[in-house]
Design brief:
The protein has nine helices and three strands. The protein is mainly alpha-helical and 314 residues long. The longest helix has 30 residues. It is elongated and about 90 Å long.
Length: 314
């Protein structure tokens, strides 16, 4: 990834030196961010792979969010710089030349970015790595920028209206700024452990599909991400009269189910609660001799009743 970014950056700056196109310079400046972010990403991947230790009981995976935030911040700065430079160039125009050569080089760089970006997004989703996904989306964004530059240069080539170059650069400056801001916001939210509803819905679907009769309810569900690692907390309500061995088996079955159905490294902390008389209405253990009221109906588990720290009841 890092070597790839360096090679493309050199290619884009060669295209700029050949054409003096402000739009191509916009594309080249964004490639500098790819190189800087790629360098820090390489270090972050190394740190996040370090096993848990006494000082870091949840591992080192959150450094990926810091790296993604750095990349987002750099993209924002680049977007602002591109907009300012392009506005200045409206008042201080320059001559563009070798447009056809610039078109071919920029198009080649854009195609390379697209394939590498798509690959990184796919691998990032497989490994639950926000850093790889962020890098991949950035490269895909770079592809869109390159396509815009190519369109702008093509229009200039046929019309000889050179101010279009600055106009295209400003448009993609705003686009780059927006992309960087979204990435920066996402990384900050991840550092603050914002709820990941996609992961929560995935866990809820697994539990609903594979629930056992003794699992009266599951509540206080939490999913935390540490790089490629998932930490899941939950409370499970079990029959109060079961012995410790039986309770341990049910908790282990729950843990093994989620690990089996969830990609990546998953750690679970499951707390067992005894059932209460209010649980009888939704309890499917019909032959229970300690029942205080009749079974009424089986509740569907969803985020509205699994996230609160409260046992289910009608």
């Amino acid at each position: 990834m890092l070597i790839f970014s360096i090679v493309l950056m050199i290619i884009k700056f060669i295209a700029f030196l050949l054409t003096h196109s402000n739009a191509i310079l916009t594309d080249a400046l964004e490639s500098i961010i790819n190189v800087v972010a790629g360098s820090f990403a390489l270090y972050s991947i190394y740190v996040s792979s370090i096993p848990k230790d006494e000082n870091h009981p949840y591992g080192h995976g959150k450094i990926e969010y810091l790296s993604a935030g750095l990349e987002g911040g750099l993209i924002v700065i680049a977007g602002v710089g591109i907009i300012i430079k392009s506005i200045i160039n409206f008042f201080h125009p320059y001559q563009i030349h070798s447009i056809d050569l610039g078109l071919y080089i920029t198009l080649f760089a854009g195609v390379c970015n697209f394939f590498m970006g798509s690959f990184l997004v796919k691998k990032g989703k497989q490994n639950n790595s926000i850093l790889m996904i962020a890098d991949g989306k950035h490269l895909i964004t770079d592809t869109i920028s390159s396509i815009g530059v190519v369109i702008g240069l093509a229009i200039i080539y046929f019309t000889k209206i050179y101010w279009i170059d600055n106009f295209v650069a400003i448009l993609f400056g705003f686009f780059i700024f927006h992309t960087g801001f979204k990435l920066l916001k996402q990384s900050l939210n991840s550092l603050l452990d914002e709820a990941d509803y996609e992961k929560l819905n995935h866990i809820t679907e697994i539990l609903n599909t594979n629930r056992k009769i003794k699992w009266i309810d599951i509540h206080n569900l939490r999913v935390l991400k540490y790089g490629s690692h998932l930490h899941i907390d939950a409370h499970i309500t079990l029959p109060w009269y079961d012995n410790l061995e039986s309770i341990h088996k049910e908790v282990s079955d729950l843990e093994n189910l989620i690990k089996e159905k969830t990609e990546g490294d998953v750690e679970l902390f499951i707390h067992a609660d005894p059932c209460l008389p209010i649980s009888c209405d939704i309890c499917s253990i019909l032959d229970c001799t300690f029942r205080k009221s009749k079974f009424v109906k089986k509740l569907d588990w969803n985020l509205s009743n699994m996230l609160p720290d409260k046992k289910h009841q009608l």
